[in-house]
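To: structure desk
From: M.T.
Subject: fold request, one chain
Message: Could you run this one when you get a chance? Sequence is below, nothing fancy, just the single chain.
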Amino acid sequence: MIVSVPGRPGVALVQPSTGLPRFWVTVWLATLAVRGNRDVTLRASLRHIGWFYEMCDRRYGAHSLDRALGENRADAVLSMVSDFYLELTQDTAVTNATVVRWGTVRIFLKGLVTQLLTRSPAWESVDAYLESVGKIRRPSRGKFRFVRALPDSVLAELLQVAHPDSDRNPFEDPGVRFRNWLVLHLLLLGGLRRGEMLLLVLDSLKHDVDHKTGQLTYWLDVTSTEEDDERATRPSIKTEASHRQVPISNDLAALYEYYVNDVRGGGEDRTAYLITSLRGTALSAESVTKIFEDWTAALSEDSRERFRVRSGGKKHISPHDLRHTCATARYPSFLAKERDKELALQRMRAFFGWAIESEMPELYARSAIQDDLLRTWNDLFDKQVLGLRGLQK
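Reply: Done. Structure tokens follow.
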């Protein structure tokens, strides 16, 4: 609630039930807010900041934000601002009001955190978060673009269902199960588009020796091919920047090779394309989509509902949802290695095949704040080719 007060700045934000001033926004107004703002401007800013305070009261208890700031609990504030950002963006129809609300709260917190950093380096995490998420872009052409990774629990259950040894796997043929398992990991760990994956040929997997470590390194050549293609919907490379080399782990490379040598089968009549049907022909885009529809149907009702809510009403997980998930998870890992936002975004563009001027990496950077996903992915990229070595025995 906003009330008028004597002197400058002339307005204050108070807790509705008690009428007591919100302490840290009062400090911000008195010492950090831009001087000379008109009363109507300050009132608009306080309305947006009030939304943030009220969410913190609802989720963490009355006065929780002021207490966390006063008690130097940066981790608690980080959780609060992450929740607030997710609450604002959980709808695909983000409005101009959402853009302004997040921008105002971000400015408010950045001003406070700058001061709090002199008290404790723990506030660097909050400062880095606010910097990496950045502003929400204003909607263009009446529609705001926002990307979502699969929720943590949905991703975990999808991996259980799709595992070749799973009793819940909807596919009967062992070879088809293993082929589908490779499809899932090429999309999930390699971040490939569906069409890019379907253009892979048997020798798309390359390797070399890292002269620094003496270890083999692997990558996929993602590019067009001269092979005959009789598919009704012919896959293609999306843009010039999409021609690239995608580094992959040794485990994923081993899965690729095992599929080629022991599962897929050879013969002169088989296509050179990597991913094939039972008949030996190149798998179609429609067949890949159907695989995901069958996997989705095998999920629990709770997971399907959580996916539907998170995705804005979609009924089925799509191949591109795994690319979204990969990109959302890759950004924090790249940022941790580079320790520079712009370098991390450049690595994103190179890895996922976006043009140098593409804004897609920034969309994924903003999506990368989902705590449940980040906890899972630290293990997923290192370990989640889960059971691959066991499958190859």
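Reply (cont.): The radius of gyration is 25 Å. Let me know if you need anything else for the meeting.
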